[in-house]
UniProtKB/TrEMBL annotation:
<keyword id="KW-0472">Membrane</keyword>
<protein>
    <submittedName>
        <fullName>Transcriptional regulator</fullName>
    </submittedName>
</protein>
<dbReference type="Pfam" id="PF04299">
    <property type="entry name" value="FMN_bind_2"/>
</dbReference>
<dbReference type="InterPro" id="IPR012349">
    <property type="entry name" value="Split_barrel_FMN-bd"/>
</dbReference>
<keyword id="KW-0812">Transmembrane</keyword>
<keyword id="KW-1133">Transmembrane helix</keyword>
<dbReference type="InterPro" id="IPR007396">
    <property type="entry name" value="TR_PAI2-type"/>
</dbReference>
<feature type="transmembrane region" description="Helical">
    <location>
        <begin position="21"/>
        <end position="40"/>
    </location>
</feature>
Length: 208
């Protein structure tokens, strides 16, 4: 991807935090018919493996050993030039879009193992149900239903060979403009604005 130095993010703890906060990845797979895209939620296992699952009919289920590109989209939003103090002085500002993304390249391993799959599903549901008043668990469903569901899917494991982030968070602007964007996002408060403002605020603190 196009990656200006100002927006490059290579700290693994920061990249891993985005993977865990926004686990739904766009998975790109090249083939004879061209590039195929699928969307799969992944669980980061340690630092070098991502685990997920798809239906048996999915193209990824037949792609054992293939090279894949995973795109994780974090917070994003439109930035108005009106939020820059410098705009009110010189007028020399234009709109832009701020965002944080992580790109992962690796090899795909297809796993057809009911025990492995059940363990993954338990991990995924336990994590994503944690905020519910009464978290749902795999054991809440009838055994025959779970067994049927497991037969309909296969596991995916991606060994991370390369990972890099692009965090476009107004780093190419002076501090006053960056703080103006954070304030503007909080005031607008459209979908995703609070998350983007929070990521910008943390980035400001980490790089102070």
């Amino acid at each position: 991807m196009y990656l200006p130095k100002a927006f490059a993010e290579n700290r693994r703890d920061v990249l891993d935090a985005l993977l865990r906060a926004y686990p739904l990845a766009t998975v790109l797979l090249g083939g004879a018919g061209g590039i195929v895209a699928n969307w799969v939620p992944f669980e980061l296992d340690g630092t070098q493996r991502l685990s997920g699952h798809v239906a048996r009919g999915n193209e990824l289920a037949q792609a054992d050993g293939a090279e894949v590109l995973l795109l994780f989209q974090g917070p994003q939003g439109y930035v108005s030039p009106n939020w820059y103090p410098s705009k009110h002085v010189s007028g020399r500002e234009v709109p832009t879009w701020n965002y944080a993304v992580v790109e992962v390249r690796g090899r795909l391993r297809v796993i057809d193992d009911a025990t492995w799959l059940r363990r993954l599903l338990e991990t995924l549901t336990d994590r994503h149900e944690a905020g519910q008043p009464r978290p749902w668990k795999i054991g809440d469903a009838p055994d025959d239903h779970i067994e049927k569901s497991l037969r309909a899917i296969v596991g995916l494991e991606v060994s991370i060979e390369r990972i890099e982030g692009k965090f476009k968070l107004s780093q190419n602007h002076p501090e006053a403009n960056r703080l103006g964007v954070i304030h503007g996002l909080r005031q607008r408060n459209a979908a995703g604005d609070a998350e983007l403002a929070a990521w910008m605020t943390r980035h400001e603190a980490a790089n102070a």
